[in-house]
Design goal:
The chain is an alpha+beta fold. It contains ten helices and eleven strands. The strands form three sheets. Strands 6-8-9-11-10 form a five-stranded mixed sheet, with helices on one face. The chain has a four-stranded antiparallel sheet with strand order 1-4-3-2, covered by helices on one side. It has a two-stranded antiparallel ribbon with strand order 5-7.
Length: 448
């Protein structure tokens, strides 16, 4: 049951745990991964070829403007010459310059920061300004402070950040992010439409495997999906025809076999009481029981359709019918269980399992409850049990385990075969285990 419920036997690898499991998720991953790689490459090219180059050239322009202003002032400018040079720098270069007389820059000027503006501005000043300097891009929001150590003091230069920044950066980022979102949305919508027919095909196959009708299903989607859906419809038609033909054939076989058996029983009843007649009547009854068992096994699903049914009520009905003798049956229902069932087929399955337990044990315990989206029923007994290495053999048709069971119990060897066939036709399964009481446990589960 553990394997059927989907628990992994081994620990999956890291890649399998990280990757999406659905077809939609994997398809989107196939689409998005190249898109992300293209965006990363484009961003790197833009940064390396455009943003880096433009910032370097803007920094060189500012460094040239500062050098030009220093050359206009000359080596020993008067206050009037200095103010005139500062006015020209303000008007022509958008540079706010002030002189702090007597001030000096610290000896341990920190290296440039991590930003592109810090590095490019520092490199540009190093090549054009013949004095010590310091660049501060963090203290002010809209301006960059450049301090230059002159002989008469520290020259403070305030540079607008607009002169060091290109607006194309924002435009490029907006286009990259916006186009990625649009492309991802379009890919998601397209892939959802492609995956939906596959999901419908899987749901139809699952419902048909559980014995439920699949009305209104038709091929749709891509060509390959349509081919798979058409193959499923053909398979469903063949299976239905086979079931119908088998049911019709068995109806005739049932009539043909029961009629002579009935005549034999009537003739034996008219022969009176004698040991020979009793033996013949016993043989006829046994033959009739065997015929009924064979027909029940061959009938399989029949034409009964699965409908929502109360499994709790069905269990109560079966237990009430099978407690006529003195052997007790303890039934425990954890909660109400409504499951899509073919009611009569499931009744036959439960009757076979409970009857099998009663035949070889003195006490039977039945428990039913919800187990992770499936309805589970366990039937325990205190009988001799079945060896573990032979538990799968007893599900074979006509297999008898007389070595472990009483030879006087009778039966055709079809009870467990019919029970598992019914449970599996509902999409579930049936297993045999060791009961806590030491006997046999029959564990069956069917999906909701």
């Amino acid at each position: 049951m553990v394997a059927v419920l989907g628990q992994a036997k081994g620990k999956p690898s890291l890649i399998k745990r990280v990757l999406p499991r659905t077809l939609l998720g994997r398809s989107l991953l196939i689409i998005v991964t190249p898109l992300v790689l293209v965006q990363v490459i484009a961003t790197w090219v833009f940064y390396d070829r455009h943003y880096d180059t433009i910032t370097r050239r803007l920094a060189q322009s500012i460094a040239g403007d500062i050098d030009a202003t220093l050359r206009i002032m000359g080596p020993n400018p008067t206050e009037e010459q200095r103010q005139e040079a500062f006015r020209l720098a303000k008007v022509a270069f958008w540079l706010d310059m002030t002189l702090q007389p007597g001030e000096t820059l610290p000896d341990n000027i920190p290296p440039p920061g991590w930003s592109v503006i810090d590095r490019k501005m520092t490199a540009a000043l190093r090549g054009q300004v013949p004095y010590a300097y310091r660049v501060d891009t963090d203290s002010l929001d809209k301006k960059v402070l450049i301090e230059v150590q002159l002989p008469e003091g520290v020259l403070e230069v305030l540079v607008p950040r607009d002169r060091l920044f290109s607006s194309t950066t924002y435009i490029f980022i907006m286009w990259m992010v916006g186009s990625s979102i649009v492309l991802f949305a379009v890919a998601t919508l397209f892939m959802r439409n492609q995956v939906r027919p596959i999901r419908r095909l899987a749901q139809a196959a699952e419902s048909f495997g559980k014995g439920r009708d699949v009305p209104g299903f038709k091929p749709e989607g891509a060509t390959e999906v349509r081919q798979a859906a058409a193959a499923f419809l053909q398979m469903r038609g063949r299976i239905k025809r086979q079931i119908s033909q088998r049911t019709e054939m068995l109806a005739g076989v049932s009539h043909d076999l029961r009629t002579p058996l009935t005549r034999m029983k009537l003739q034996l009843a008219m022969l009176g009481e004698s040991p020979e007649v009793k033996n013949l009547a016993s043989d006829a009854a046994e033959m009739e029981s065997m015929v009924e068992g064979y027909l029940a096994f061959a009938r399989g699903e029949g034409a009964e359709q699965a409908e929502p049914a109360d499994l709790s009520e069905l269990l109560h009905d079966v237990v009430e019918q099978m407690t006529s003798d003195a052997r007790p049956i303890d039934l425990h229902m954890e909660q109400a269980l409504t499951v899509p069932l073919r009611r009569e087929a499931m009744r036959r399955c439960l009757a076979n399992l409970i009857g099998n337990a009663q035949r070889y044990a003195n006490h039977v315990w039945i428990n039913a409850g919800n187990r992770r989206s499936v309805a589970e029923v366990t039937i325990d007994d205190d009988g001799p049990g079945i060896p573990e290495d032979r538990r799968e053999d007893v599900f074979k048709a006509f297999y008898r385990l007389d070595q472990a069971r009483s030879p006087d119990t009778g039966g055709t060897g079809l009870g467990l075969t019919i029970a598992r066939d019914v449970v599996r036709s509902h999409g579930g399964d049936l297993y045999l285990e060791t009961a806590p009481t030491g006997g046999l446990r029959a564990r069956l589960w069917v999906p909701f």
